[in-house]
Amino acid sequence: MHKLVLLDECDFLPKFQQDDARHIAERYIAKSDPWTVMISTPNAPGGLFDNIEKESFDTCLYKKVFLDYTYGLDKIYTKQEIEKDKASPSFERAYCLKYLGLIGNIFSPQNIELCQKHEYNPNVWRQKVKSTIGLDPVFGSSSFGIVVTQLYNQKIDVMFAEKYERPSFQDMISKVWELKNKLGYVSNIYVETLNQVQAVLWLICHFHLLSSQPFPNAYLSFIY
Q1: CA angle, 115 then 162 then 125, to 5°
Q2: CB atoms within 10 A of CB 215
Q3: 161 and 149 in contact (C-beta within 8 Å)?
Q4: Comparing C-alpha atoms, which of 50, 27, 31 is closest to residue 40?
Q5: pLDDT given for residue 91 in this prediction
Q6: Which pLDDT band, with edges at 50, 70 and 90, does 9 fall under?
């Protein structure tokens, strides 16, 4: 009897778990020589499936099979059902093997187009307006993301949005401190935490960044 390791919808694992899942699955190759099967709808660029797709067919451990909706047409769903589903913003990802970011399901294309009509100068940073810093502190295996927004004239302006490849923790602390000084007033720092250790580290960072400012009601929010 042949053994099987199956990872279903594994492209939707949190970023810090994707590499671990692959490493654990492939660890059994030498132990029991199982079939290792990964199945998933595409999630985001830079994730597990996108990275495997970019690996050379000559050296990749996996046989890559790409099945869009046309393989199931008139088998598991009808043309009428597909036409109806095309109205969904997530159709390209769910049925056409497109990664999130080219077209997503969080913001509609109409809302994105509306935002693009809003004109402002991202180089003009205003003091004493509500400002937030958003952090995606992924270390080691992915990019560290920072986004800065300001609320002005009842609109949210994106003032800064950058990602950093494999940065050090201290470099990111310094960068956030630099942004905080440029903003003056920071009302919130939002952190997507991966584990309790990072939550504690960024809690320490919170007191370092916000306790010295002369504004009350400054908060650090963890997003799990």
Answers
A1: 65
A2: 11
A3: no
A4: 50
A5: 87
A6: very high
Residue with structure tokens 């492939």?
Answer: 26
Cα angle 133, 135, 139 (rounded to 5 degrees) comes to: 155
| Structure token digits, residue 25 | 């699955």
Q: CATH 3.30.420.40: which residues of the chain?
A: 120-223
Mean pLDDT to the nearest integer, 98-108: 62
| Helix (H), strand (E), coil (C) string for 71-139 | HCECCCECHHHHHHHCCCCCHHHHHHCCCCCCCCCCCCHHHHHHHHCCCCCCCCCCCCCCEEEEEECCC
Q: Output the CA torsion sign for 117, 122, 128, 134.
A: positive
> Among candidates 184, 193, 192, which has minimal Cα distance to 214?
184
Q: The tokens 């302006």 sit on which residue?
A: 157
Q: How far apart are CA 33 and CA 49, in angstroms?
A: 22
Q: Which CATH architecture has domain 120-223?
A: 2-Layer Sandwich (3.30)
| pLDDT band with cut points at 50, 70 and 90 for residue 41 | very high
Structure confidence by residue, pLDDT tens digits, 56-82 = 888 999 999 999 889 898 999 899 999
